[in-house]
Amino acid sequence: MPPPRGAPHRKGAAFANPCYTQIHPTCIPPSDEFQSKLTLMSESLRNDGRIWVPKNLDDVNVDAASIPEAERDYYLERKYPAFGNLVPRDIASRNAKTAVDSGRGVGPLHNGVYLDFSDAIGRLGHDTIAARYGNLFEMYERITGEDPYRVPMRIYPATHYTMGGLWVDYNLQTTIPGLFAVGEANFSDHGANRLGASALMQGLADGYFVLPPTIAGYLAPQLGNAPLSTEEPVFAQAEADAKERIDRLMGAKGTHSVDHYHRELGKIIWDDCGMARNAAGLEKALSEIPPLREEFRRDVKILGTAEGVNQSLEKALRVDDFMELAELKVRDALHREESCGCHFREEHQTPEGEALRDDENFAYVAAWEYAGPDIARDAVLHKENLVFDEVHLTQRSYK
Amino acid sequence: MSNMLKLTLRVWRQDGPDSPGRFETYHTEIADDASFLEMLDYVNEDLIAKDKEPITFDHDCREGICGTCGVMINGQAHGPQKATATCQLHMRQFQSGDTITVEPWRAAAFPVVKDLMVNRASFDRIIESGGYITVSTGAAPEANLTPVPKDAADAAMDAAACIGCGACVAACPNSAAQLFTSAKLQHLNMLPQGQAERWARTENMVETMEEYFGSCTNHGECQEACPKEITIDFIAMMNRDYLKAKLSNRRRGGQRTAG
User: Fold this and answer.
1) Residue A339's pLDDT is what?
2) What is the ipTM of this complex?
């Protein structure tokens, strides 16, 4: 579960760059709709695995081993000879989508691409590959029932990480005075993309190096002040608000489970605000989310009581947040008329199909302020310009 | 392609810590490429559709790395597959027609919260009693200034693989927590960075453990149940360190008596 960011946002903390969501290229493809998790395989596998799909549409149902070398499309090696299978995550993900969308997806549901270790095993031997990836190969076999030493793995991209998050200043303080957000909860380190291990880096850097000196600046002037009494009316108000929200959800007594609504919301986001986005799809999502949110609030079915543990209620409170954050994410994606890192707008691409940035107009952090429950109408955009003094913006090339 | 399994489940249902529990029987049909927790999700959706309260069970990452999930499956902690947490157990380990009994961890130190969810706060008490380690903050030090033998680094890493799920306690006839505690101790005690507080940490964590959990009588069930294959060698190391902690003169070693 990602850190909860819905509640602070609703209370006034600006949310930055909600449309920057990383799609991880190396996950195990779903086997059916009820699959709860597209298990992430390590990106290290791309060091030795070669990604391919059949060139020929007729070959997607054939055993991988029986497809001759000449009939395979190692599409990353073909398109990006300098980086090959090690291109960044957004490029690897988008190209997997292109391959599957072209009808050349493999596996029972034709929803994956091959990650093939046969060359690496031939070159380095079984034992070297086992030493490098043995635990991952075992995990893959546990989940799929297939042995990746003998048949190629099947992988497909899945949603992995939100680079966006609560807006913070250089002291890691949000726009609510005294509320600090560290690690994955804030937006500060990754921009529109995220490199491997840098979420861990951010957790360490924020917690270890940044926050200890910066939070003191907020706390020191409070020395000697008596702690706020819980008799203050704000506490009663916060409790009443939380209770009202819980009672409303419990009282819906509708017809569909929380998971049903979570899944419906996920489908909208995956289809229209996923790896490739366009204005028509985003507009469609914006028209679909508010009715779904209203239906969820009116029709969700939570059994049991609000006393003690109620996992459906806990989940419903999160999904209630997701309904608003999803709309904000789509609105952010719609307003950002450029392609940038993980945010790929189909209208903005080079003739070769690569991301086309617009630094002239969009070199800023989009920090959204909550100003009412109608996100599309009420959310207020604040822009923090990105200023580069020493290292200047360039366009990367992996060709 | 996946096969469908017809299963009978006997699931422990308990409304709260002080309520009596009972087994309830459910029938389900599930694809064999579902995970065990997805099977429970599926049963829960069916229960909700029938206006019955869903089964409460702990879960989070579903990648076998967080330690949140874990149930007794036919009397085995995390089920029949070795080195596999419940979330990574897949239904192809079962046969159509099987009856599967699902229970919470059974241990006095892990009271049932609801259904299959238990309170493992006693593990937190052990961790807390271990206190901190002394490290210099600031810029990252040059790694080669602190030599660590490869064998020690590997063994410490093996101990650090513990995800704190509690399967070792659930599998133990004495509900002992030696495997957990020793893993948490030895991943520090074998490394240079863990030396400054080594004896105080060992004494505090072992004694806190004994407040909550039973005693180890070397059955070895814990290492069989451990999803991370942590071995009871670490228990031997912990026992040795505990003895040394009791015998060492800590004032001379510069170690405080309390963590």
Assistant:
1) 96
2) 0.90
The CA radius of gyration of chain A, in Å to the nearest whole number, is: 23
| Cross-chain Cβ contact A34/B90 below 8 Å | no
Per-residue pLDDT tens over the stretch A24-52? 999 999 888 778 888 888 889 999 999 99
* Dihedral sign (CA A222, A223, A229, A235): positive
User: DSSP secondary-structure letter at A229?
Assistant: P
Distance to chain B for A305, nearest Cα, Å: 10
The encoded tokens of residue B122 equal 């006693």
Task: Write the residue in A108, A212, A309 that is nearest to B114 by C-beta.
Answer: A309
Angle between helices B233-247 and B178-189 (to 10 degrees): 70
Distance CA A210, CA A175 (A): 18
CB spacing of B56 vs A311 below 8 angstroms? yes
- Give which of A36, A41, A161, A204 to mutate to test B binding, by max B Cβ within 10 Å: A36
Q: Could A35 and B34 be called an inter-chain contact, meaning their C-beta atoms sit closer than 8 Å? A: yes
Shortest distance, CA B44 to any CA of chain A (angstroms) = 10
Distance (Å) from the alpha carbon of A32 to chain B's nearest alpha carbon: 8
Instruction: Dump pLDDT digits (tens) for A300-344.
Output: 999 999 999 999 999 999 999 999 999 999 999 999 999 998 999
C-alpha torsion sign, points A368, A371, A373, A374: negative
Tell the residue number behind the tokens 């952010």, with chain if given: A332
- State the Cα–Cα distance between residues A206 and A184, nearest whole angstrom: 10
